[in-house]
Structures are given as structure tokens and as C-alpha cells.
Amino acid sequence: MSKIAPCLWFAHEAEEAAKFYVSLFPDSRIDHVQKNLVDTPAGKADQVLVVGFTLAGQRFMALNGGTRFEFTHAISLEVDCTDQAEVDRLWEGLADGGAIEQCGWLRDRYGVSWQIVPTVLSKLLADPDPAKAARVMQALMQMVKLDVTGLQAAYHG
């Protein structure tokens, strides 16, 4: 298990968000739910304070802080997708109730930023032929949800 785990701050939706996320990723689960023992600024006694959960083997914590802070693009969660089917499944699931953006980015219904990226993209962009890599980058910049076939077509010219 990793030593460092991201903590996502929610006003009151920590458990709902954690359940949503674990429903989308294999090797995911709710690990524990900690309730307030006394009334706090985050909520009343016996309301959920912290949810520990695992997404695809990575630990996370969701905190009900009682105050809404907006998530920004300053931090996002990148998902390495093995194929177009995985890109499509996660894109549709995470975008449901959220907002789609450009270049494989979206914000989910809770405002968390995600990058849904096919594994092949890094290989295509790292090609020693700068013309091939540039074509891939140009194609990427025109996409909303990333399309493996379109990226590969750009690579091959």
C-alpha cells in the first residue's frame, strides 16, 4: 500500500463520491468510514467525517469538511487506460453529471478533474521522429475525449 494518499475535501458528499468512484474502477473498495464522535464544524455527531477508499489499488481519503472548496485543474487524477473501450467506459461514467473538456480532461459531478488517457499516447508522443510526435500532439489538441484510432492515424500520417 502506498505511503501517500490524496485527500479529497467535500462539503458533505464524501461517502457518496467514494461510492461513485469505486463503482467505476476494478480493484476498488470502501476501506473504512469514520463518523464524527462529537459535533464539529464538519458536521454533527454520528455523521460521516472521513471515508478511506481504494481506487484501482491506490489509497484515497474523502473528507467532509463542512465548507465547500472548489477543486481546480491545479491537481487532477490521470487514468492510464489500456484501450479505447476503457477510455469510453470511464469517460462516460465520470462525465455523467459533470462537464467534459478538451484533450481528455473532464470534471466529474463533484468537480474533481480527471485526465482519461490511453496508454499508447505517451509512446506516440515520445517517438524519436518529431514529425510523428507533432502530428499526434496536433490531433490531441483537437479532441475532447481521446480517440486511439485518431491518434494512431495522426502518427502514421
What does this structure look like?
The protein is α/β, with parallel strands linked by helices and 157 residues long. It folds into 2 domains: 1-69, 2,3-Dihydroxybiphenyl 1,2-Dioxygenase, domain 1 (Roll), CATH 3.10.180; 70-157, 2,3-Dihydroxybiphenyl 1,2-Dioxygenase, domain 1 (Roll). The protein is 32% helix and 27% strand. It is built from 5 helices and 8 strands. Strands 1-4-3-2 form a 4-stranded mixed beta sheet, covered by helices on one side. Strands 5-8-7-6 form a 4-stranded mixed beta sheet. β7 and β8 form a beta hairpin. α4 (130-142) packs antiparallel against α5. The longest helix has 13 residues, at 130-142. The radius of gyration is 18 Å and the shape is elongated.
Question: What kind of assembly state do the chains in view correspond to?
Answer: single chain
What is the CATH class name of the largest domain?
Alpha Beta
CATH-derived topology of the largest domain: 2,3-Dihydroxybiphenyl 1,2-Dioxygenase, domain 1
The share of residues in helices is 25-40%
Classified in CATH, the superfamily of the largest domain is: 2,3-Dihydroxybiphenyl 1,2-Dioxygenase, domain 1
Low-confidence stretches: none
Shape: elongated
- How many strand segments? 8
State the domain count. Answer: 2
Could you say what the CATH architecture of the largest domain is? Answer: Roll
Q: pLDDT average, as an integer?
A: 96
Record the strand order, biggest sheet. 1-4-3-2
Distance between the termini: 43 Å
Total helix count? 5
Gyration radius, rounded? 18 Å
GO molecular function, one term: methyltransferase activity
GO biological process, one term: methylation
Protein name: Glyoxalase superfamily enzyme, possibly 3-demethylubiquinone-9 3-methyltransferase
Keywords: Methyltransferase, Transferase, Ubiquinone
